[in-house]
Amino acid sequence: MFLALRELAFARTRFGLMGAVVALISVLTVLLSGLASGLVVDGVSGLLRSPVQAMAFEEGTKTDSAFTRSEVTAVQRDAWQGQADVADAELLGTAIVNAKNDDGTPLDLTLFGVEPQGFVMPAAAEGRAVTAEGEALLSVSAKDEGVEVGDVVTLDRLGTQLTVVGFTEDQRTFGHVDIAFVPLRTWQEVHAGLTPGETADPEVYDVGSVVALRGVDGAPDLAAGDAAAGTSARSIEAAFDSSPGYTAELMTMQLIQIFLYGISALVVGAFFTLWTVQRTRELAVMRAIGASTRFLLTDGVLQAAVLLVGSVAVGTGIGAGLGAMLEGTQMPFVLQGQPVLTGALLLVGLGLAGAAVATGRISSVDPVTALGENR
Amino acid sequence: MTTPARTDRATGTATTTVDPAAERQGLTLRDVVLTFGDGDDQVAALDHVDLDVAPGELVAVVGPSGAGKSSLLAVAGGLTRPTSGSVRVAGTELVGLSSRALATFRRDNVGFVFQSGNLVPALTAIDQLRLVEKITGRRAATAPLALLDAVGMAEHADRRPARLSGGERQRVGIARALVASPSVLLVDEPTAALDRRRSHEIVELLARETHQFGVATVMVTHDHDVLTHCDRVVEMTDGRLAPVQS
Ligand SMILES: Nc1ncnc2c1ncn2[C@@H]1O[C@H](COP(=O)(O)OP(=O)(O)OP(=O)(O)O)[C@@H](O)[C@H]1O
Ligand SMILES: [Mg+2]
């Protein structure tokens, strides 16, 4: 550390520039991680924050379009309900709809058709719970669109009218669209394409998109239930992948993050390579004096560690500050301690790896070169 | 302190009688050969060299460029392994030691003074000396500041090399070489970058420290002016060593 710290102070401009680059990369990492978490919440908070542990889809539906294509029946729900390890099995209908508020402002909504008294229906934090057909409990985030309790929302095309009776406590979105929890029967009518006043065949009230499941003690045995009900069930986490855009968005974010980590390691490695080359002469002198390779390597790696930990800490701090400002805005941004910490550790770890490889050149410096003319 | 003898006893032949204590403490090269390359390109940088330097003795090595002077220092200090022959420093045979053992040996027994000082740019004068303490892992027998004082650099203790003159750097380099109380001091062209007056000062200083600390010192130089301060002068030509009558 003796030499490491003095060299940091001596070449502070160079190390400062390098530190600034690493700090900026850390800021980006924090922002990306916040954006990724935000996208998850925005994309699937409706599933993430529901008590549902698994979803049974229609057998054979493809993963990427499962929620829109799948259709299950009450018979299948009853088969699931008959499983010993299933506590609750309920039909859940999903549909993304375009609607207009009282004043004509367009509104995108995901209808979640659920049993009004069932386990999937969330509590109302504002207003009251849904009791009758034609009523809707909206995600609290819909208030940002100007929706208020008492508003009547009209669905495009069908003209179905939904009265907003309350809001959930936290954000409930699906595919980045606010969820409107409506009675299952209302959803079934919309699903069948019925306009108001039209009478329906009884089988209309027999279907849902999926069977929402909750086990008696942890998630139920999906294979056994599938065999009994003829469905294709997935855990709630696996069902995220079936949400609109979810996989593509997350993959994009992860790819950017991976590139950032790679760039960071390479930049740090390149910097320390140049730095070590620049120090070749003094390294040769120290080796001639009898400094062991271990002494010099330890010093070099510690120097990199001080630089990395310092700049990543500063960058993460700035990133968290910026993130806190973003959290209140329309941006899908959620700061979470664990992914931010993981990102910071990765930056330090990969940077150290890059620096260690570069500093390894120390072991090939020949002490004899310290003698003779001043090259 | 050993009184260095102004004789030519220790050069030229391997049969010269040497004070046994001096042989144990100082530097002894016996029949050392160092060749580079092979076949037609082979160069004998050192050609059957014998040299004895007693503690407290300052021996100057002169000779034309390419004669093998730096090679002599490299072999004597355990930086380069000779092709054949024996190198003993303070009673230890260096030939056959591993690289790691050689590094440790240099650390504890050999001091180097390089051309133009070769100081670490980031360190102040006093820190150059403290760095050696860090490398050896023990305190200098003479405190760093006292050593700087001995070379007349105490008032510049907090200056980095960039703010020191060539002669001042060389002084710090000498003080640094003495931190580990070495048995042998190897000095490569210490006055190459200095004017006449500074050159005399530096070599006088080297002679004084050599005598005071009882170090066996070998100094390579092109500068014939400064030879008066040396106890003995040897000349190197084409890898061969011969005494010079003063
Ligand atoms: N690493 C090496 N590989 C091949 N030949 C070398 C090497 N080092 C030195 N030599 C050769 O050995 C001979 C002696 O070199 P050395 O550096 O010891 O000379 P010198 O007396 O110190 O010269 P100068 O006064 O110019 O510093 C020269 O012919 C040189 O070319
Ligand atoms: Mg030379």
Descriptive report:
The complex is a heterodimer of chains A (375) and B (246). Chain A has 375 residues and is an alpha+beta fold. Chain A has helices at residues 2-10, 12-48, 66-69, 74-81, 184-192, 222-229, 236-240, 246-278, 280-289, 293-327, 337-359; strands at 54-58, 72-73, 86-100, 106-114, 126-127, 135-138, 152-155, 161-167, 173-174, 177-183, 207-208, 210-215, 231-235. Chain A has eleven helices and 13 strands. In chain A, the strands form two sheets. A six-stranded mixed barrel of chain A has the order 3-4-10-6-8-7. Chain A is elongated, with a radius of gyration of 29 Å. Chain A starts with a helix and ends in a 16-residue tail after the last helix. By secondary structure, chain B is an alpha/beta fold. Helix content of chain B is 30%, strand content 24%. Chain B has seven helices and ten strands. In chain B, helix 4 (125-136) packs parallel to helix 6 (166-178) and helix 5 (144-150) packs across helix 6. Chain B is globular, with a radius of gyration of 17 Å. The two termini of chain B are 24 Å apart. The interface between A and B is medium-sized, with 26 and 37 residues. Chain B: This is ABC transporter ATP-binding protein. Chain B: It holds the Pfam family ABC_tran.
Strand content of chain A: 15-25%
* Poorly predicted tracts of residues of chain A: none
- Number of domains in the coordinates of chain A? 2
Mean pLDDT of chain A equals: 90
Q: What is the string of SSEs of chain A from the N terminus onward? A: HHEHEHEEEEEEEEHEEHEHHHHH
The count of strands of chain A amounts to 13
The parts of chain B where pLDDT drops under 50 for at least 5 residues are 1-18
Report the sheet with the most strands of chain A, covering strand number, pairing sense and barrel closure: 6 strands, mixed, barrel
Protein name (chain B): ABC transporter ATP-binding protein
GO molecular function, one term (chain B): transmembrane transporter activity
Pfam family, one (chain B): ABC_tran
Domain ABC transporter (chain B): 27-246
